[in-house]
């Protein structure tokens, strides 16, 4: 496989140096539930591996939780050369605001006690983040943070123009 090296990001309230290697069975939902069970924090944040948090991302998350939000997500922007990527990102953000559904591309955060009360991610092979949001929505609306995470579009994965049809269809379906 290919490796990408990213610069470390500074977070105000997070101890990013406490790292732990966990073993889990296959399946993204199982793996995220294993990580959540081992986490000691009061707020959990789930994001896709190709999504980068903005600097000091913890500040707006903790502010939203302090104002009473049980869960939420960031707006997203998508890296790449295609002129359509900002349009797709904007549509993803609007769709999420209107429906209260977010994906791992938008860095979903949730209070740990609420996540555990709901039983964590459903053990399903796909779209476990959407299913979780449907249950979270019943507890209250998401905090839709204006700060933007960056979804990295990997040219090798998407195709020659940096914008793949499969990602377009997935973004428009959500």
- Rg computed from alpha carbons, rounded to a whole number of angstroms: 16 Å
The first-to-last residue Cα distance is 28 Å
| Residues in β-strands, percent | 15-25%
> Which strands sit side by side, in order, in the main sheet?
1-4-3-5-2
The average pLDDT score comes to 82
Q: Give the % helix.
A: 25-40%
The largest pleated sheet is described as: 5 strands, mixed
Overall geometry comes to globular
Low-confidence runs of at least 5 consecutive residues: 1-14, 156-174
Structural class: alpha+beta
SS element count, helices: 7
Order of helices and strands: HEEHEHEHHEHH
How many strand units? 5
List the helices and strands and how they pair.
Elements: H1 28-38, E1 43-46, E2 51-52, H2 58-66, E3 71-78, H3 85-99, E4 108-111, H4 112-117, H5 128-137, E5 143-151, H6 155-158, H7 165-173
What can you see in these coordinates?
By secondary structure, the chain is an alpha+beta fold. Helices cover 37% and strands 16% of the residues. The protein has a 5-stranded mixed β-sheet with strand order 1-4-3-5-2. The longest helix has 15 residues, at 85-99. The chain is globular, with a radius of gyration of 16 Å. The relative contact order is 0.21.
């Amino acid at each position: 496989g290919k490796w990408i090296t990213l610069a470390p990001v500074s977070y105000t309230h997070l101890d990013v140096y406490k790292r732990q290697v966990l073993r889990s069975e296959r399946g993204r939902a199982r793996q995220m539930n294993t990580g959540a069970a081992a986490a000691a924090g009061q707020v959990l944040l789930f994001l896709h591996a190709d999504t980068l948090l903005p600097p000091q991302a913890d500040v707006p998350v903790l502010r939203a939780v302090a104002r009473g939000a049980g869960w939420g997500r960031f707006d997203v922007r998508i890296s790449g050369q295609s002129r359509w990527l900002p349009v797709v990102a904007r549509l993803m953000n609007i769709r999420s605001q209107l429906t209260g559904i977010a994906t791992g591309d938008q860095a979903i955060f949730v209070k740990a006690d609420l996540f555990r009360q709901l039983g964590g991610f459903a053990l399903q092979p796909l779209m476990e983040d959407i299913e979780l949001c449907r249950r979270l929505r019943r507890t209250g609306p998401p905090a839709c943070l204006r700060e933007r995470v960056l979804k990295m579009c990997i040219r090798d994965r998407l195709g020659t123009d940096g914008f793949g049809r499969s990602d377009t269809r997935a973004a428009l379906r959500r």
